[in-house]
Design a protein that fits this description.
single chain; mainly alpha; extended; two-stranded antiparallel sheet
């Protein structure tokens, strides 16, 4: 298995972890935030924190840990808002979208290796699918929002190029290839 494929899955799991809410927390779990009536629990923040810390060689200090947990909470709040806006705009990912993305992630692994990677991240296949659904939906929302007000004419491109020619001047690397063939 290629190292880049493993790194890709680990990065996806870490990034996707912030886009979704896993199974419902246990009774009595502390609510750290609420977004339009949807709670974000301490256990969710702790879960994603553990995933991130597990990837680091040294444990963080108490202040670093608290700062990271607050950053995770902020990210969870932001993603919940975006998820809700995607649902309102009817931009939720379809089952086909989720399955296609899951197939991309599975491609470099055997079925057993993929399950091992999920287990190492403390995730189930259903949790990954839910997180992928949220991630794809949020991406659809952002793509639609960004593309709605974005129009660039050919003249604007030309003008920008003319004003910033120095940025585009660089020496291209040249290679000269030769082959020496010796026959017996």
């Amino acid at each position: 298995m290629a190292r880049s494929a493993v790194a890709w899955l680990l990065l996806l799991a870490a990034g996707a972890a912030l886009t979704g809410c896993g199974p419902r927390p246990a009774e009595g779990d502390e609510v750290w935030a609420e977004v339009n009536g949807r709670p974000i629990f301490r256990s969710q923040v702790e879960k994603y924190y553990e995933r991130q810390v597990g990837l680091q060689p040294e444990p963080p200090t108490a202040q670093e840990a608290l700062a990271r947990k607050l950053a995770i909470l902020a990210e969870l709040i932001q993603n919940e808002i975006l998820w809700q806006k995607a649902a309102q705009a009817n931009l939720l990912a379809t089952d086909g979208d989720v399955e296609a993305r899951l197939a991309e992630l599975r491609a470099p692994f055997s079925a057993q290796e993929f399950q091992q990677q999920l287990g190492a991240q403390g995730m189930t296949l259903d949790e990954l699918k839910a997180e992928l659904r949220r991630e794809i939906s949020i991406r659809k929302l952002l793509d639609k929002s960004l593309a709605a007000g974005l129009t660039v004419s050919d003249q604007e491109v030309t003008d920008f190029y003319e004003e910033h020619k120095n940025r585009f001047r660089f020496v291209e690397t040249q290679y000269h290839v030769a082959q020496v063939l010796v026959t017996p």
